[in-house]
Task: inverse folding
């Protein structure tokens, strides 16, 4: 008699594979980048893709994977056959946005801004967002606007 969980494993593997393919084609993310942005290890993601898990994936990891890729976790829960009526976690309120960041975001959606300029804006943002944190220089005090 076939294992009833096999169908769920195949369905979830297809879901994860499509999510990875979409991240690769639309965002140019590698598997390492997906892992870093979702907080789910590459080993876990690879097990999901292969359908090689003995017990169900942890709900928290599924949620982190989906949220990191901008997907609705309810879809993944449905693929896994989990209860879809579980209330979603409350969305934390966003911190106030820096006016310069708002200006950049407006440029990214402005149809009058060239795709080349949007590309450069995105690349600069990625560089700044993910570069290593620079250590504070203990010999200098921060400048004050004056």
Result:
């Amino acid at each position: 008699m076939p294992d009833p969980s096999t169908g769920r494993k195949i369905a979830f593997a297809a879901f994860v594979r499509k999510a990875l393919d979409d991240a690769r084609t639309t965002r140019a993310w590698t598997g390492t980048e997906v892992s870093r942005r979702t907080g789910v290890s590459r080993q876990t993601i690879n097990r999901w893709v292969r359908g090689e898990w003995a017990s169900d994936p942890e709900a928290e990891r599924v949620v982190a994977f989906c949220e990191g890729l901008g997907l609705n976790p309810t879809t993944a829960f449905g693929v896994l056959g989990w209860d879809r009526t579980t209330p979603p976690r409350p969305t934390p309120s966003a911190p106030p946005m820096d006016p310069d960041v708002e200006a950049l975001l407006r440029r990214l959606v402005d149809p009058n801004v060239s795709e080349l300029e949007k590309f450069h804006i995105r690349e600069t943002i990625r560089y700044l967002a993910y570069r290593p944190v620079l250590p504070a220089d203990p010999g200098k005090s921060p400048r004050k606007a004056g």
User: Anything to note?
Assistant: The chain has a mean pLDDT of 84.
